[in-house]
Write a structure and sequence with these properties.
Layout: H1 5-18, H2 21-28, H3 34-52, H4 59-86, H5 89-96, H6 99-109, H7 117-134, H8 143-165, H9 172-194, H10 203-230, H11 233-239, H12 242-254, H13 261-281
Helix pairs in contact: 1-10, 1-12, 2-10, 3-4, 3-9, 3-10, 4-8, 4-9, 5-7, 5-8, 5-12, 6-8, 6-11, 7-13, 8-11, 9-10, 11-13
């Protein structure tokens, strides 16, 4: 655990940055264009990374890179923005916090490595913590938003698992860039078909898109895949709980959301969950 600590801190920056997505989406982006937002976040980011690091995957790697691009980027980003537009941030956070449980299930059923019981308990604790942190009786239940959040969590869980267990000769920058490019290309026809053209963009709109592309995608995904290359997949997934924590704190600071005893208990449980998964898996069979 001690030797991993600096690497965990670096990887944790990615979900902390992603925690700002809900705030930026609701406060700075034009309304009702989730697929356009996902497209403008991913496709330019992929092009930038591949212009910087001009590497091509081997022929036998192309199919796997494309599948990871769909799971980690294309489908996941689409579902992320649909849920962000249709659900309160709190409910979306509760649903996506189930991702670590999904990764543990894949490690067990597909990876044939049974995670310790403490890892399962810690992951469940994380869901409970996020529920206490963000739940409100005023939350509205939108079926499409709920399905999108759960499908997005499942898609990312599959992507995380296979990103770890499939081997590639690409550098982290190129590995990230190809996924973002291919995932963005998958989103392009969907955005053009389902959504109207963007209106005249304000400075706030442009700033929101640029922030999500450069910091929320280029930087965050490079850090994420760097950590995933060196840490167990469930450990990286558990760090994802930092995203709703960051979203909640940003909402408290900038949107006037309340900070009470319930939310403080939830925040504490979520942090204990992250620590518990790290501890439970430090000696597991899953490669570090």
């Amino acid at each position: 655990m001690h030797n991993r600590f600096p690497l965990i801190l670096i990887t944790a920056l990615a979900p902390l940055i992603w925690g700002s997505t809900y705030l930026v989406t609701t406060e700075f982006l034009p309304p009702d264009r989730p697929f356009t937002a996902a497209l403008l976040r991913t496709l330019p980011a992929g092009l930038l990374l591949l212009l910087w690091k001009r590497e091509w995957p081997e022929k036998h790697e192309i199919g796997k890179v494309f599948l990871l691009a769909v799971f980690n980027i294309g489908f996941f980003q689409a579902m992320l923005f649909v849920s962000a537009y249709r659900l309160p941030g709190g409910l979306a956070a509760i649903l996506t916090s189930t991702q670590t449980l999904m990764v543990l299930l894949l490690v067990w059923l597909v990876g044939k490595s049974k995670p310790p019981k403490t890892a399962w308990f810690s992951a469940i604790l994380g869901v409970a913590g996020i529920m206490l942190l963000v739940y409100s009786p005023q939350i509205r239940f939108d079926p499409i938003g709920i399905a999108s959040a759960l499908l997005g969590a499942a898609s990312m869980a599959i992507g995380i698992f296979f990103s770890k267990h499939w081997r590639f000769g690409l550098s982290i920058l190129a590995f990230t860039g190809w996924q973002l490019l291919l995932g963005g290309l998958c989103l392009l026809p969907v955005a053009l078909w389902l959504e109207p053209p963007l209106p005249a963009l304000s400075a706030a709109n442009i700033g929101g898109y640029v922030y999500l592309c450069l910091l929320g995608t280029v930087l965050a995904y490079v850090l994420f895949f760097y950590g995933l290359n060196k840490l167990p997949s469930a450990v990286v997934s558990a760090l994802g709980l930092l995203s709703p924590i960051a979203a909640f704190l940003l909402g408290w600071l900038f949107l006037g959301q309340s900070l009470n005893v319930q939310s403080m208990i939830g925040l504490t449980l979520a942090l204990f969950s992250i620590f518990g998964v790290q501890r439970a898996l430090q000696n597991s069979k899953e490669s570090a």
